[in-house]
Please model this.
Amino acid sequence: MIKKLKGFSTPIRIRNYFNGWMGISLLVCLAVAFPLMVIFGHLFKTGDSSWQHITTNLLPAYTINTLILMGGVALLVTLIGVSTAWLVSMYKFPGRRVFQWLLVLPIAIPAYILGFTWVGMLDYTSPAYVFLRNNFGVETGQFLFFNILSMPGAIIILSLSFYPYVYLLARTWFMQQSASILEAGYSLGHKPLSVFFRIALPLSRPALVAGVSLALMEVLNDYGLVNYFGVDTFTTGIFSAWFAFGSPVSAIKLSGYLMIFVLILLMAERMDRGNRRYDSVGSQFRPLRQKELNRLNGFLAMITVMLPILLGFVLPVSMLIYWSIQTSHLAFDHRFLSLLKNSFLLASLAALAVISISVLIGFTVRTFPSRMARFMTRFATIGYAIPGAIIAVGLLVPFIWIDNQLARITGSAGGIIITGTWFTLVFAYTVRFMAVGYNSIESVMTKTSVSLDEASRSLGMSNRNTLFKVLIPIIHPGILAGALLVFIDVLKELPLTLILRPFNFDTLAIRAFEFASDERVPEAAPASLVIIFVGLMAVLLLRKTLKKQGYVHHP
Amino acid sequence: MLLKRILAVSVAAVLMVGCARHAEVVNVYSGRHYQADERLFREFTEQTGIRVNLVKANSDQLLNRLEMEGERSPADIIITADAGRLIIAKEKGLLQSIDSEKATQLVPSHFRDSENFWLGFTKRARVIIYPKGRINPSELDSYESLTGDQWNGRVLVRSSQNHYNQTLMASVLAAHGEKGAENWARGIVNNMARNPIGNDRDQIKGIAAGEGDVAITNTYYIGLMLNSVNREEREVASQMGVFFPNQNDRGTHVNISGIGITANSPNYKNAVLLTEFLLADQAQNVFASENYEYPVNPNVEWPELLKSWGEFKSDTLPLHNLGEFIHQAMITFNNAGWE
Model:
């Protein structure tokens, strides 16, 4: 694509920069990126005395911890995500069809709830430990087996929460691979493992990178879990600067550095991938046919895919159900329904906003590729790695300014008009979750050959018709997958909702968090279960749509 | 179609929020999220007709939001579960004096600001928890005594990120100065049974599991655990004794949940009414019997559980004097290597 463009004359290159699509995309990106730019702007402010103390005494340890955590999670989510995706895409074994859906489920559980639940399952007063202690005299300190409140514990819990990002994207990718590529590998004498490492893995790289980078950004963003587990990360440092040192300036400056770090990571990946393209040029797409496994291998495959489902979903959800039964008399009051409604509406609105913007800028970058366009999208999607509480600060600056202007124009002495409304919240989610929607849409767009667009245009279709009549029908499943991920993410979201919500406004996640943060984990269970349940409905909905689209093959 | 409906609903929601302003209201930013609080707010509305609008979040974030909103902020009241945050709020000019004879009478002077910019409505003692039978309370004495060699590898306490520890440190700084406080923190770090992990409940469970022998926690966690839905947790809590440290010198460190009225409060009169309501017998009883916090109002009788822990002498250094130490607290923790 890039090479081809270099041959064009200057006017076309200029047209790549100045046209309606670019203009609108740029405006939208600017709006989304504005809170981030506010944070960025703080980098150049001079630090106070706390800043001095934090950078010299705390930052080195925080940075090292963060790198260890990221490395551990990256390794584990890749291992779990890719191996399970490969197994369910390539082989037939008992329960495969059920497992391929069950593998997505842990995504419906917020990481901090998974953490609290696992601690509750292993700690001194947990049913399992009590049983083992009383009947078999097992004594392993405060926690069963190993001290879960530690770095390894945090890596395991975060990986169990976030591997579905990798799994989902890798599986979609494998499913869309033409069987002929892999068969070519076999016919050249490669063994299955070698086909996996030499063909499938390199080929699935965009999906893999998109998935792992989502997982890592979630890790960078997480505060609730690492704080409870006693792992001091960069994000803990941000909050420590703010809460313990009372220095929001230092907190925002640190977030600015975090943004630079993420930007460099993303750019490095882009540069490394360079101009390689991953779309299949051949027209003879044939769906994969799963290979039969013998009994032993089938059993091993089953165990492999069952393990993350068991640890990331079945066991914790069973525990939550057990707790919910214990506390049901406290939980289901008259306000529960409004919690559900609020959560559901917010998540839908945010998914709609994120996906519309993602399709718009995704298509613009695809149609008018330029370095500036790509940088613009990178910048607009970086909010995913920034702790929600910090985004809130960046967001309040422009919103309160607008409110002040509005008040001046209308001459009202009254308070605040748009800050602290639904609109603020949905806008905040859009800033925060752009990456989720955009990455999945970009991933399917990369997979769809640009020659389709070119064919459409050469037949006289306008850009708009190319997008709506050609591209969107093709990438439909990717759009839905993106919307689903955003929906679930917003359902689980906490820090932004906490600080930006209107008066008297609660969501399920807030209800769960309030009990959990008061150290009343069992009471948090019913709301957690409903979050998970609504998330599951979203997964089912997706499945139905994918089936209609013919993306699920039933051999 | 769906999109239209969603838009309509959200517009309606925005308008509803806008209209609600005309009735008598009081707007509360609260860093506490107990259901008992919300029930009391509803009770207040029933008694006075004043609607309580509530946003609950982390108190530091609420202070920041208040600061950014400036003079147009809708908030009338800020509630935090820690005196340190209110001291900071006053420093930043976010509060104004609470003009109430009643409140001044009900709250002892060391639990409120010298100019009544904020006042405590519940008290929370940070004590030493020990296993009855395993440890004889006569071995215990003060926060300082836990640094002695006999406690090596036996002390459980959570991380220095925690507000309760930070305000405790401020009180130690007030008592011993920077050098002395750092030595104290070093002594505790040396005697820790493990790196600081988990919350206050986890420290208590750590004792039951034999990982340590004493824990520094707030008293009401014992109350919450005694009333837990988990039988084993009730069992653990019933084995624990509560020891009030420093009875022979300055007294046990007591923090507060406090309330302040914002500098630009649009409904000042209602804010004062709500403050008085929270200090009156009815609300004070609820805090004591449901959250197991100590009532700040001396006229209110303690429930049985609180009585069973016994009377104690609390640090009478006025909490507002901790202001000058609160900023140093974290630095001292870091210097001493308290994670």
Observations:
- The domain at 125-253+320-336 of chain B is CATH 3.40.190.10 (D-Maltodextrin-Binding Protein; domain 2).
- The longest helix of chain B spans residues 163-191.
- Strands of chain B lie at 25-30, 51-56, 77-80, 95-96, 118-131, 155-156, 214-218, 240-243, 254-262, 294-295.
